[in-house]
Design goal:
With about 450 residues, the protein is of the alpha/beta class. It folds into two domains: about 10-200, YjeF N-terminal domain (Rossmann fold, 3-Layer(aba) Sandwich), CATH 3.40.50.10260; about 220-460, UDP-N-acetylmuramoyl-L-alanine:D-glutamate ligase, CATH 3.40.1190.20. Helix content is about 35%, strand content about 15%. The protein contains 14 helices and 17 strands. It has helices spanning about 10-20, 25-45, 55-70, 85-95, 125-140, 220-225, 235-245, 295-310, 320-325, 345-350, 360-370, 405-415, 420-440, 445-460, and strands spanning about 50-55, 75-80, 100, 110-115, 140-145, 170, 190-195, 205, 225-230, 250-255, 270, 285-290, 315, 340, 370-375, 380-385, 390. It has a ten-stranded mixed sheet with strand order 8-17-16-15-14-13-12-9-10-11, sandwiched between helices. Strands 3-2-1-4-5-6-7 form a seven-stranded parallel sheet, with helices on both faces. α9 links the parallel β13 and β14. α2 packs across α3 and α3 runs parallel beside α4.
């Protein structure tokens, strides 16, 4: 199921469309409050609660939440920043008959619910508001944010004011970019999307579990996908990539190096006739170049040969370093859309620092070179030249270790060789690696990821 990610403007448009279609605005607020109250109740259980209500509709949601939690038997107090400024928030405030105190005078409670500011915040909190929020949050056992933690921008992951860490964030209708983009995402805790009965679509989606096919009775190794890997100077990188490709469903993996590489699983073909041998094989479903590839004259020769094949390309590491030194425009002439997998440093060398969110920069980069760009990180963004983009949620921080990029490149090459289009193959590869990391647990190394790919893949067929 596609999960759309909406910007602040897209969310406002979706709400306006629902209202124009006959759903009263206050009904949407009641639905939001009911969804949030249910999620908070399930997460925190019965404990005294303090609900911080701002003057806008986010505060209106807070009054609804307070009323519904009180109806469940909780001891609830509202701390108001100011009187409501919208008609719907006024209506929600009028329906609340419990205690209300000024934000500055509020006493802490075990459960803190932040409904001060939600979607659309454009500046940091005033010092007094920030101080009160920090004081009350630091004394709470559980902190829940409504829509977004107060102090977070909606669309680009920026933290406009220092934000307390939340254990739960409840948003409405759809995820927003800052639920997944760093540095904001690290403060969200568990993110729950409450259904409020609106329909909306976006060109930004969340990476979801892919649907991959199992081999049929008429399949053979080449119909399942032949991955060819051009080995670089560091054999470990190529071994990781080749083994990952084999474990990610490739029917055949061919590792091409100057000599036979020791330590490679027997199922991986090595001919030892050099990295350029048999690059004209029409059965190649994906060609991976860059893992351990040196950014020297020899590396450039190998990359030039890869670019000349016209096969579906996955370019990583050393190949990206070479392209950053010149020749990036050659990717636009490829007959099959390449996939690039840069991390932050490589992305900056390839495309510059730029402005805008990570999503905007990835989209601009993909459009500039007519390639799919996998902008790696804790908030990996995958961008297509036509403006489609996807963000992967909850990437393990333990992926920040040597060799994990080689594993990802091998996985993407495998699913690309199996026939998935470049954008879908990149998403599938990122999901498979992320799930393998989850299965591996903490303190894993890249080799451990490969060991868990079988389970990760099995969940998609």
């Amino acid at each position: 199921m596609t999960r759309f990610i909406l910007t602040a403007d897209e969310m406002r448009a979706a709400e306006a469309a629902a209202i124009a279609a006959g759903t009263p605005a206050y009904t949407l607020m009641e639905r939001a409050g009911a969804g949030a109250a249910e999620a908070i109740w399930r997460f925190a259980g019965p404990m005294p609660a303090l609900v911080l209500c701002g003057p806008g509709n986010n505060g209106g949601d807070g009054y609804v939440i307070a009323r519904l939690l009180r109806a469940r038997g909780l001891q609830v107090t509202v701390a108001a920043l100011a009187e409501p400024r919208s008609d719907d928030a006024h209506t929600a405030r009028a329906a609340w008959d419990g205690p209300v105190v000024a934000l500055a005078d509020a006493h802490p409670a075990p459960l803190l619910i932040d409904a001060l500011f939600g979607t659309g915040l454009t500046r940091g909190l005033d010092a007094e508001v920030h101080g009160a929020l920090t004081r009350l949050a630091s004394a709470a056992q559980i902190r829940a944010a409504i829509d977004l933690p107060s102090g977070v921008a909606t669309d680009d992951g920026r933290v406009l004011s220092p934000v307390p860490d939340c254990e739960l964030t409840v948003t409405f209708g759809a995820m927003k970019p800052s639920h997944l983009l760093q540095p904001a995402a690290r403060h969200m805790g568990r993110v729950v999307v409450a259904d409020i009965g609106i329909e909306a679509a976006s060109r930004l989606i969340e990476v979801a579990r892919p649907r991959l096919r199992s081999p049929g009775p008429d399949d053979h190794k080449y119909t399942r996908g032949l991955v060819t890997i051009i080995a670089g100077a560091m054999p470990g990188a190529s071994i990781l990539a080749a083994t990952a490709a084999a474990r990610a469903g490739a029917g055949a993996v061919r590792l091409q190096a100057e000599t036979v590489v020791p330590g490679v699983p027997a199922a991986i073909v090595q001919n030892g006739k050099g990295p350029l041998d048999r690059l004209d094989d029409p059965r190649i479903g994906a060609l991976l170049a860059g893992c351990g590839l040196p950014a020297d004259k020899g590396g450039r020769r190998l990359l030039d040969a890869a670019l000349a094949t016209g096969r579906p390309l996955v370019l990583d590491a050393g190949a990206l370093q070479i392209l950053a030194d010149g020749g990036l425009e050659r990717l636009a002439d490829q007959p099959r859309r390449p996939i690039l997998t840069p991390h932050d440093g490589e992305f900056a060398k390839l495309f510059g620092e730029g402005a805008g969110s990570k999503v905007e920069r990835a989209r601009a980069a993909a459009a500039a070179i007519d390639a799919v760009v996998v902008y790696k990180g804790a908030d990996t963004v995958i961008a297509h030249p036509d403006g489609r983009a996807a963000i992967c949620r909850d990437m393990s921080n333990w992926l920040a270790s040597a060799g994990t990029g080689d594993v990802l490149a091998g996985i993407i090459a495998a699913v690309r060789a199996a026939g998935l289009p470049a954008f879908e193959a990149a998403q599938a590869g990122v999901w498979l690696q992320g799930r393998a990391a989850e299965l591996a647990g903490p303190a894993f190394i890249a080799d451990d990821l490969v060991a868990h790919l079988r389970q990760s893949y099995s969940e998609c067929v």
